[in-house]
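Form 7-S
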Amino acid sequence: MPTGMAGVCRTAAVRSMTCAVHGRPHERGHIHADATRINRTLNRSDKERRMNIWQFGDVRVDRVLEFEQPLLGWQQLFPAATTAAVDRQRAYLEPCWMEPGTGKLVMSFHSFLIRSRGLNILVDTCGGNDKPRPNKSRYHMQQWPYLERLRAAGVAPEEIDFVLCTHLHVDHVGWNTRLVNGRWVPTFPQAKYVFARTEWDYWREHYKTEAFKDDPFYIDSVLPVIDAGQAQFVDSNFAFNDEVALVPTPGHTPGHVCVNIRSKGTECVMTGDMMHHALQVGEPEWSSCFCVDPKQSALSRRGLFERYAGTPTVILPAHFATPTAGTIERAGSTWRYRFQGT
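Output:
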């Protein structure tokens, strides 16, 4: 397994369960590597490396991990969730995507590196290093080997042509910048940073509100890119080329976009934060506590599920844990996420 799943499978409580990722029964003492050990497991085997690489026609996609671990309880992330509804999905989500006993959801924070028509496009940039986030400990003053993982995928920061932020939240903009001699400078010096114009119009004033006075992610991770002249504001249906294009999916934030890849009869959709966990595929009305417009977010999800259910289109969400990729299946009157390899 190429990436850590941070203590998902602990103790005798899960001894009889089978890990959908490893494909073997869990036993006492069997745990997935935690975030501090992920860098040691990235190159363990060809099979494991392939879990982070997808090919869609001529387009290659790599997942570049920042960290992965059980994080938020389902009650915390989804205010509308009920125990009965969660229990209906528990059997297929535990132990790899929901921690037994605690109900914490296993979540991943990663970027996607797209290689298409000679372009290197990096989608979402996680939380970043050295960022002061005293009210969000999982992002506060971290030291992740993220750039090393990017280089291990075969691309240096200087070789990135475009950085796309599906939306401007703290965990999607962090590696936009890095700290150099006390200044925040663009991490990817040759790149254009692509922001949906609708998203920028919302955040350019909203970040100044009281809610963000102790959360300077906009100041240290967005404004320096704009000041450096590297920002490119685009319509929400912007196309990088004939293979990679944006799709407007408002709700989580006003200008949230997905990324659609089409090449040689294959298709992929990177969904950003339109959904945070596989639970939402079965319960599309459950918007996260972070959604600006929960009703619109649910409408965007339903639209995606209705369009792609029963098709081979691969879905690549921003926070689904290993193996991340999957397809949408119909399940009676609703849907279900089928993780690749399960």
